[in-house]
Model the fold of this input.
Amino acid sequence: MKIDVFTLFPSWFDWFAGQRHVRNACAGTLELGFVDMRATTPLTAGQVDDTPYGGGAGMVIRVDVVEAALRARYGTDPREHEPGRRVVAMAAGGRQFDDALANELAAAEQLTLLCGRYEGFDERVNEHLATDVVSIGPYVLAGGELAAMVVCDAVIRKLPGALGHADSAIEESFSEALGGAPEYPHYTRPVDWHGQRVPEILLSGDHARIADWRRARSAERLEERSKS
Ligand code: SAM
Done:
């Protein structure tokens, strides 16, 4: 899989790219790139934004700047979406990111993430250059970099070889294996911590009963979430 992150602040990703599971994935099938949108701006003096039509505070990232960055990277007209590539504009008001969307994006051959700044992108980026507009939650961040890292992280850990144990990513919170429910609780040593004991069933060695117990705890958590 190929993932490209388009940003005005590529150095934000230096730390992310150095993390073990990301390096593992890159040693396998992942090609991860970071593209500085300012480097290809068609405007003078590195300009990438402009004042909003209709007035109001803040600046808006220009559509021709994003177009130029995409065109320079892929050598094609970015208004014509290539099959196999998802182009995701990060936006607070977009489709809520969840495990199902992480699976969808992980199944794509190529994933392009566009990080906004300031007041965000000119709407024509969302409408004509992106295939998806995605939010990581109902709150506003200063920029799309952290949001893109969240999406990258959730997608990358689904790729072969990213995690130490391939099974780790199968039975997890919100996965199909758990019917979309949160994961059950985990315990490790010590068995007794200030009188708080690990549930006896987990010490029983009875794997069928343990699996039932875990499913039940997972279902309970789903029920609790639906009430809150
Ligand atoms: N004016 C925008 C609004 O009210 O929705 C907020 C712009 S925000 C300051 C700048 C950029 O951060 C956005 O263009 C987007 O790329 C990113 N961003 C902020 N919050 C986000 C979120 N919850 N999910 C995804 N991206 C977000």
User: Anything to note?
Assistant: Residues 176-227 form a domain with the Trp Operon Repressor; Chain A fold (CATH 1.10.1270.20).
